[in-house]
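Practice problem 4.
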């Protein structure tokens, strides 16, 4: 069958490769780490750094289409690939969302509500930004942050001293703290013909900045549910997007605030593996290969729970008839590391 290239060999790449195989495709994983979990599920693999133009070109030669499972890919890597293979989601979606400043500016220019934000380069600009935004606020590195890493909360103006050092002087944004009632996310897909399918919003609970559970359906008003999928569709259209995107939202009394977008399958969409006939991974593969999208219909209420570090030993779930276990095959269960997840049928009240 045709070969789909996937940049990044983490658990998302692994589950994409499994979904691709089910549709008769082969996959080619590209990752610098030979222990990356997706290699075990793919027919082809390249272990090389993301700045190896030769390896990237050879990878692209072998693929009908290339996608990615994380957004921190250096744009130069795309140069080497774009000579021979098409990349979905497109370059604009990737470059925009790997930098919180360009991402939030794009969202605001679309007319969507974000937390107030200011660019920060050093302690002097942080002081200016803090005057505009006030406290509490959060200083976030513009690039490379995930699972709440590279963030520091400022509760009083005195917290300025040391804040820039705490993120090692990296370019950053200062964001006003949003007092949300809950966090939800929309997993949305767009096909090569521009058709859009959105899954029901899921309700996300974080622990220590890391996603802990996603519950569907989210308990929100009908108004917020509608706004959530409409704004997700608006973002996809604006980017002429092809593939699956995760859109993280804060629910407030005044409506929805967009936190961030991820141009890929998303941890808060893992519930679709149990709740839908067509899960987010198959949906992404369908989108990037030019197939029609499947319905995003949910047939079951689900609670997804991440297994971090030693949680992976929670195998009593194996005996639970309502639990579907996913393990990523990572050998070192470091604290906070995503090792697997459990999808459970949500008990009905
Ligand atoms: P991810 O792993 O989802 O990519 P991340 O490291 O990119 O996370 P964010 O999603 O920006 O970080 O923040 C992580 C969590 O911190 C959010 O889900 C939310 O709970 C909290 N948070 C972030 N920004 C704000 C804010 N402006 N106001 C209130 N809480 C916030
Ligand atoms: Mg993020
Ligand atoms: Mg986030």
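Answer key:
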């Amino acid at each position: 069958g045709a070969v789909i290239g996937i940049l990044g060999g983490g658990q998302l790449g692994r589950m994409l490769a499994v979904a691709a195989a089910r549709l008769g495709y082969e996959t080619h994983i590209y990752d610098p780490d030979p222990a990356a979990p997706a290699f075990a599920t793919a027919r082809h693999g390249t272990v090389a750094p993301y700045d190896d133009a030769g390896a990237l070109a050879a990878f692209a030669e072998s693929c009908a289409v290339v996608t990615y499972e994380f957004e921190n890919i250096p744009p130069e890597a795309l140069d080497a690939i774009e000579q021979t293979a098409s990349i979905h989601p497109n370059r604009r979606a990737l470059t925009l969302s790997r930098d919180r400043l360009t991402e939030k500016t794009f969202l605001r220019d679309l007319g969507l509500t974000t937390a107030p934000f200011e660019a920060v380069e050093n302690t002097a600009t942080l002081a200016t930004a803090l005057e505009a935004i006030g406290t509490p606020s959060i200083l976030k590195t513009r690039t490379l942050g995930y699972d709440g890493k590279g963030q520091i909360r400022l509760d009083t103006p005195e917290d300025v001293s040391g804040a820039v050092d705490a993120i090692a002087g990296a370019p950053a944004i200062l964001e006003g703290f949003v007092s949300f009632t809950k966090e939800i996310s929309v997993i949305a897909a767009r096909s090569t013909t521009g058709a859009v399918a959105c899954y029901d919003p899921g309700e996300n609970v974080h622990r220590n900045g890391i996603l802990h559970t996603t519950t569907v359906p989210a308990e929100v008003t009908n108004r917020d549910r509608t706004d959530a999928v409409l704004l997700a569709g608006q973002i996809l259209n604006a980017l002429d997007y092809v593939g699956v995107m995760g859109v993280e939202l804060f629910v407030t009394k005044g409506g929805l605030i967009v936190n961030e977008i991820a141009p890929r399958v998303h941890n808060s969409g893992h519930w679709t593996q149990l709740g839908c006939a067509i899960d987010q991974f198959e949906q992404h593969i369908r989108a990037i290969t030019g197939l029609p999208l499947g319905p995003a219909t949910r047939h079951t209420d689900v609670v997804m729970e991440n297994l971090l570090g030693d949680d992976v030993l929670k195998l009593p779930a194996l005996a639970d008839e309502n639990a579907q276990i996913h393990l990523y095959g990572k050998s070192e269960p470091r604290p906070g590391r995503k090792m697997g997840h459990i999808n459970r049928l949500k008990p009905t009240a």
